[in-house]
Amino acid sequence: MAANLTIRIEQSFSKISEESWSRLSGASKADGEVAYNPFLSHAFLSSLEESRSATAKTGWLGHHLLLEDPDGALIGAVPGYLKNHSQGEYVFDHGWADAFERAGGRYYPKLQCSVPFTPATGPRLLVAPGQNTAAVELTLAAGLQEVTRQLGVSSAHVTFIAEAQLPAFEDSDYLHRTDKQFHFINDGYANHDAFLETLASRKRKALKKERRTALENGISIEWLTGRDLTEEIWDQFYAFYMDTGGRKWGRPYLTRSFYSLIGERMADDILLVMAKREGRYIAGAINFIGGDALYGRHWGCIEDHPYLHFEVCYHQAIDFALAKGLKRVEAGAQGEHKLARGYLPVTTHSMHYIVHPGLRNAIADYLERERQDVDAMNEYLSEHSPFRKGERQQEQD
Question: Which residue in 348, 354, 342 sits closest to 377, CA to CA?
């Protein structure tokens, strides 16, 4: 790349042009781009900041890398945050931090390049149209290392990165980490029944029974999107989120105002699957609609019913993806229980730049063994999928 390009740090999305950001790869909806990732949109990222969900006070101080040409035009970017903890990331490095600090090092703050609270794969090296994509990605990866050194922090972590962007890091000092998620892959099924026909008979019968049981006791399901997402609806969904988040995390990450902001700015990119009984909503799940994928995020309820979680989060997501012609459903982090419902194991990727040589060598040794374990587990899980033998190939990692 030309030597007169500049990388600068911007802490606030309010100071980044929405028009310029929206032209970057993954963040654009222009011409119905299939690569559109709603979590990389200016609307989503700025809402996290303005709602006080991701701020310095919560441990997410914006440190977004902006690559600009001599005229100040934005040609590349990396969403980044200075962090003083490892919460809300879903790629766990608490053990690295503990070991380094016991040895006398200082792990925090660190530089985290990700979408806060969102374990969804997507580009992290964002490139404007008309640029040499490979060259810009290499420049951003190298620039991230230099920024890490200049800040004097321990490390930089690029998490849930699209596999296609891994080559930008391969000839540098980044360490490669893998993990797994479970995704539903749409093989062109006409409907949910057509999908079920590809399953082994016993699995198919079990899921049909599960769906019937979930809707007993007079429960019905509604899909809400766009203008359906009123403040009253957000109040009810937020109660679900607070109930589940309070039990799982102790303190939910997202504020109530976050939901108002995304409802105002990106309502057409949101699907709420809501369960209703006796005239009131009792459970719900929020999903985000990308160019070719549905991304499942949070779930909550105020009444417990058998299998309702599976119906609202997984079966209904498949129904929606099939109805809209989406290629896949990404069902969030972890959860082997998703396998029985037609979600297959998929490898996720992250890259880590560790400044201290001793810590880097120790982590590199650990990651080599961890990658082998992830590969072995994914192979094992794929062999125990509910699909009929030979009916369907494992998605290529």
Answer: 348
- % pLDDT > 70, the chain: 95
What does the angle CA 357 – CA 85 – CA 9 come to, to the nearest 5 degrees? 75
Helices 256-265, 42-50: axis angle to 10 degrees equals 150
User: Is 42 strand, coil or helix?
Assistant: helix
Closest C-alpha to 175, from 376, 368, 378, 369: 368
Does the pTM of the predicted model rise above 0.85? yes
Q: How far apart are CA 288 and CA 291, in angstroms?
A: 10
CA neighbor of 168 nearest in space, from 43, 25, 321 = 25
Identity of the amino acid at 110: K
DSSP code string of 214-245:
HTTTTEEEEEE-GGG--HHHHHHHHHHHHHHH
Asked whether 323 and 359 are in contact (CB, 8 A), the reply is: no
Is residue 114 within 8 A of residue 159, CB to CB? The reply is: yes
Q: Between the CA atoms of 304, 309, 310 and 314, what dihedral angle is there, to the nearest 10 degrees? A: 160
pLDDT one-digit tens code per residue, 194-253: 999 999 999 999 999 999 999 999 999 999 999 999 999 999 999 999 987 666 555 789
> Phi-psi category of 31—alpha, beta or left, where left has phi over 0 and alpha has psi -120 to 50?
left
| Residues 6+ positions from 10 with CB-CB distance below 8 Å | 16, 62, 64, 66
Task: State the CB neighbour count (10 A cutoff) for residue 71.
Answer: 5
Tell me, rounded to whole angstroms, the distance of Cα 264 from its chain centroid: 21
Distance in angstroms between the alpha carbons of the first and the last residue of the chain: 31
Which domains, ranges and CATH numbers included, belong to the chain?
Answer: 6-182+346-383 (3.40.630.30), 187-326 (3.40.630.30)
